[in-house]
Design goal:
The protein contains 10 helices and 15 strands. By secondary structure, the chain is of the alpha/beta class. The protein is globular and about 65 Å long.
Length: 330
């Protein structure tokens, strides 16, 4: 008989009212895939919070086990690239949205979605990075590909106390950038400076409608907020600078003019972490193992248990979470 495990299941009835339940499942209840994994660690991302609270239509198949990230050990494989005992990481690919995700003791996934757990990281450390940190690394790589370096001037990170922002601050500061951390939580100033931020900027300077062009203040940016914030970041970017955009915490809209693009040659770099190809994922995880200071990773991480996931999901959507939340599955 299959061993039972607990899972968080979100469902929706004909009345469209969403339910969140902790249920017992077995391997026979899982969706199709060619690799079975014992989930050792996962994390609570902003997207996971949206899925559990229903605050945004993240879930596109019902019922669903949320959780877009996991690290664990292969139990069985029908995929030639993996065998029992391999340690793996999963980020994205619609897991937790259209395919059963990480908030369960077991996962059945497609082997092509997986990357090896880097030797530098334990499963808990890998989930301290998670999609948020992996996305932050993709943003840094996008800025580098655009030809930008610390010698060009400061970099701004919006939503700096959040998951993407915290890792971005830590990465960019270690790489030698002068980091301006934008946050709406003044109490987190010491936390952000400990991660490497050189300046703290009140998000109110960026979150309201602004001018088409502002004073040139930074050469580059990493934005996880969108809306007026991203528009104002672009308006304040120096000539030939670039901004990597990866999130929508303030909104999906972008009330910007063409002025930064045609008068200053500013570039807006879209970063998609969900469907990034495997080569890019492997490079991002390799860079994380080199460029992310383990001490700073520890400083931005809080560890919780399975039973705390639902509460954490509500807190992260409400803006009450600092840094990264790691779930040790036990």
């Amino acid at each position: 008989m299959d061993e039972a495990f607990r899972a968080i299941l979100v469902s929706r009835g004909e009345d469209k009212v969403q339910r969140v339940d902790v249920v017992e499942m077995t391997a026979g209840d899982l969706m199709d895939g060619d690799v079975d994994i014992a989930v050792e660690a996962t994390t609570v991302n902003y997207k996971d919070g949206l899925a559990i609270t229903g605050a945004s239509p993240v879930v596109r198949r019902w019922p669903m086990i949320p959780g877009i990230d996991l690290a664990g050990t292969v139990l069985a494989s029908r995929n030639p690239n993996w065998q029992a005992g391999d340690r793996v990481v999963l980020n994205g690919w619609g897991v937790g949205e259209v395919h059963y995700g990480a908030y369960a003791g077991r996962a059945r996934l497609m082997g092509d979605w997986l990357v090896p757990l880097p030797d530098a990281f334990t499963p808990v450390q890998a989930m301290a990075i998670g999609t948020a940190g992996y996305t932050a690394m993709l943003c840094v790589m996008a800025l580098e590909k655009a030809g930008l370096s610390p010698a060009d001037g400061p970099v701004i990170v919006t939503g700096a106390a959040g998951g993407v922002g915290s890792v971005a601050v830590a990465l960019l500061s270690k790489l030698g950038w002068h980091v301006i951390a934008s946050t709406g939580r003044p109490a987190e100033a010491d936390y952000l400076k400990a991660l490497g931020a050189a300046e703290i900027l009140d998000r109110r300077e960026l979150s309201e409608p602004g001018k088409p062009l502002g004073r040139e203040r930074w050469a580059a940016g990493v934005d996880a907020v969108g809306s007026h914030t991203l528009a104002n970041v672009l308006a304040g970017t120096r000539r030939n600078g670039a901004v990597a955009a990866c999130g929508l915490a303030q909104g999906m809209d972008l009330p910007v003019t063409v002025a930064p693009f045609i008068l200053r040659g500013v570039s807006l770099l879209g970063v998609d972490s969900v469907m990034a190809d495997k080569a890019l994922r492997l490079e991002a995880w390799r860079r994380l193992s080199v460029d992310l200071d383990p001490a700073r990773l520890s400083a931005l991480t809080t560890t919780i248990g399975f039973d705390e996931i639902v509460d954490a999901a509500h807190r992260i959507v409400a803006g009450g979470v600092r840094g990264r939340l790691v779930v040790e599955m036990g």
